[in-house]
Every structure is written in structure tokens, then in C-alpha cells.
Amino acid sequence: MSNKGDELIFVPLGGVGEIGMNAGLYGFGPPKARKWIMVDLGMGFASEEHLPGVDLMYPDLSFAEEQRENLLGILITHGHEDHIGAIGEMWPKLKVPIYATRFTKNLIEARRLGEPGAPKVDMREVPADGRLDLGPFSIEYVPVAHSIPEANALAIRTPLGLVLHTGDWKLDDTPVAGNSTSEETFTRLGEEGVLALVCDSTNVTREGRSPSESEVAAHLAELIRNSPHRVAVTTFASNVARMRAVCLAAQACGRDVVAVGRAMDRVIDVARECGYLDGLPEIRGAEAYGYLPREKVVALLTGSQGEARAALARVSRDEHPEIALSPGDRVIFSSRAIPGNERAVGAIINDLIEAGIQVITDRTELVHVSGHPRRDEMAAMYRWTKPKIAVPVHGEALHLAEHATFARKQGVDQVVKARNGTLIRLAPGEPEIVTHVKSGRIFKDGNVLVDSNDRAIPERRKLAFTGIVSVAIALDKNGEVKGEPSIDLMGLPSYGRKGEVIIDVIGDAVERTINGLSRVKRRDSEAVENAVDRSIRSAVNEVWGKKPACHVMVVEV
């Protein structure tokens, strides 16, 4: 039973208004004594050009850290990186138990063991269809179909109502590996009474229903069977159903499967341990590739998103130590480029085609299906669960707006337009956004975590556009220049628009500026540095049209 003053709260900290970095909090109790649970703790890939040097992004957990003493646990819906990828870096800020089903738990552990210095995490296994009680929350893991085994929605029961957090899901009655999404189960939840549906928005702009994994498997089998030479298939390493489909197709036509890439190896080990590769012949390591006849091999490669260091990119540049392709071989992209990765994927495709290799993508063949629901599937979910409140999540602004309109058309009057950092009261009373809490992004810069407001990123971005000029000037105590100034340029062209030699332009500007300063000012190092800085930027702008960053150092001798 709820007490007077109790509230049911939802606070997304990541994944709402963006794709990736999924993390959300549910709170229950009076405002000053709430208990909390977190759902997922994922990362995003920094593919944006305005983030030079940054590879990964994590949700800002400042608000969750403030609630740490009342945070009861982290519930993981499934093992994709945008739902688990921040655990290694961000869990030490929270240090609470993490709950996941076996495959996901083992995947997190395998990932941790592959990262030097990663913390030992308090992992607790939840059985399939399992339930657990954490304070005022009673959580049921509800299996759903997705592009990875053991994906789950969460039925979160509280004294103020049932919230259904779908996680990533779709409808697929023949999933090849992993769960299907049960109409019976979700109808049962709907009959129990769903207060709020917090639902995936990724494919809300697409009509109809997603094809099944079994349809992709059949088409992959045909493409592999009909290929006269080598076949290489790239897909998300975590897509065990696709991996199993490739293995079955290869087995049917007498080919061996070779797996290439550390992420692929890691998932294969976990999938085999959990029984998802039972009944298949051995998947061989990359070292076997060179000993197999050209027409008797299928390579499973990482790198479907254009990652520069992944196996496929290295193969496309003919830089891989063990894997090479020849004209007439076939590469199948059994994946779709995540928004932001299109250019990198396109570059690999172009390199392969220039090398005479046949490339097949989902633009022309059924070699990939999404793990997220289209509109017909979403309509079924709303029909089964009949929620009083809809909260669109897992999408950019376009997806969330489309989902809000769609939910109203399904008969849901109360739709909350959440964004990262919105603190939403779901009950009691009408749902509303009460306030906004701190949210944002944390960047992984090398081995360091930096706030999105850190000056390093905008400074680095500026350097990428304008370069830098470094000047060292030696002055004695009387303000006389000793020797020639040392000038170094990075990122500037050699010549100006009329053929001026840029380094000579800078040298002349330095000399002119120093000679124009009084002897008194030349004894002031800071005044000299500022004057030379302004002069260089102005002179270079005259001949180039850009003002470089400058680093001027005066050495007193």
C-alpha cells in the first residue's frame, strides 16, 4: 500500500532525445525519502565531427550519484553496448548490484575481463521470466524478441501502479536465436492494468512490420550457396541469431566458418556457454583462414559500422595480417549503418568495390532486419497493454514526436514528452514534468573521462579548422631580441592566396611587431606575447582568410 506523500517518478538520464547511452531512474516514495532503481547503463559512439579525439560517450550520472544511498540496483534489459557499455567506467560512481539474465551477465563479465583495470562489478543473475523485489519495487523480467539473445522488457510494479519499460523489442515469431514477444504475456499485463508504457521509438517512422530473422537467414543461405568464391559477412558481433544463420548456411553448402575480431570471439564464447550455438560445427579462428580453399570458407567479420581498427576496415585496406579478399569474392553487410557512421561504412564499401569485390547490402537484398518495432508492431503493443500513460523513449527528437502522435492515435490521452533530465511524476494524479535535473554527456578522451563542458574539446575543434602557430622569442633584460625567433606551424597551408610564403609572413609580422614596441613594453613578457599573437593572427588572416590559434612564448635571457 502507498502512503500519503508517496510518488512514482521516472527520470531518463540518457537515450531520450538521442540514440544510445540508455539510462533511466525510477523512484518511489515521498520527495525527501525516495528509493530508486536504474534501468540500463549504456554508452554512445562519438561519431560527430565536432568531437575530435572522442570515441565514446556516457550519460552524466550526477543526479544518480546524489541518490546513491537510496539506489537499490541497476536492472539491465539486454546486452547491447548502448545499454551496458558504460558499466565499466560509470559503475564505480554508484557501486550497487547489477541484475541481468545469464547471457547478458556473462557478456558483461567477458567484456570486463577484456578491459585492463576494469572494476569487479557486483553482478547478480536473474532467471528467464524471473522476478525480484527491491524495496517498494517488484520487477518482472518479460522476454521480448530483439537482435540479441535474452532481451527483456521490465514490468515494474509499485503501490501506485505498474510501469512497463519495454527496452528494445520487436515482434518475431521465428527469431532463430533468443526470445519471441508473447502476445499472451503482454495481454495479461494489460488486463492487470498498465499505468505507463515507457516504449522504444526507434522505428516509429516506418510503416508495417519488420521481417523475421528467419527470412534473413533464408536469404543469407541463398547468397552464400550461390557464391563461387569466398564470402565474408559483417554484422553486429552481438547478433547471435545472424551468426547462427551464417553458420547453418555454411554448413549446408560444405563451408567452414572463420570468426575474425575480438568482439566476435567474445560473443561466440558467451553464446556457446549459454547454448545458443549448440548443434553447429566449430567456428574456427582467423589463423585457419589462409589454409581453407577459396570456395570453402565464410568469414564472420567485425566492423559493420566502419570502425577503423575493426577487422573489415583492415581487410578493405589490405592491412589485415591473416585475412585477404580477391576480385570476385563477396562481402555481405548484414547490418545497417547507425546514424553518424554512414561515411565510414561508405568508405569501406567503396574500397572493396574498387578492389573488384562484390558488395551486398540491405539496400538491394534482405540481409538485415532491425531489432526494433515498426508501427504495426507498436500498435499491437498498445492494443495489448492499454496503458493510461505513454512515455516515448529511445529515439531522437523526430522519433519521440512521431511516437507521441502515434500513441494518441492508439487512444492514449496522456502522453509525456520526456527528455534527458526531466523528472516526471507518473502518479498520483495526472502525469507531469515536475522539474529538470542535471543530465548530459561524459566523454571518454583517451583514458580520461571529461565533462562535455571541458575546454579541451572546443579547443581541439578550433585547431582542426585553423591550425596553430608556435613562436618562441628570446629577449634580454633590456628588451633586445637575441637570435632569431623560433617559429613552428601545424595545420596551416604553405602559401597564401597570392603565393605568399606563410612562414615568412609570420616572421615578418613578429619582427615588425617587436620593432614597433617601446623598450619599456619589450621588458613586459606578457605585453610582447599579446602583441605578437594579435599581429600573427591578423597577418595570416590577410593572406589565408583564417586566424590560427597562436602560442607565443617569451624567454628572458
Automatic annotation (TrEMBL):
The keyword RNA-binding applies. GO terms for molecular function: exonuclease activity; metal ion binding; RNA binding. Residues 20-220 form the Metallo-beta-lactamase domain. Pfam families: Lactamase_B, RMMBL, RNase_J_b_CASP, RNase_J_C. The keyword Nuclease applies. SMART domains: Lactamase_B (SM00849). CDD domains: RNaseJ_MBL-fold. Keywords: Exonuclease, Hydrolase, Metal-binding, Nuclease, RNA-binding, Zinc. This is Ribonuclease J.
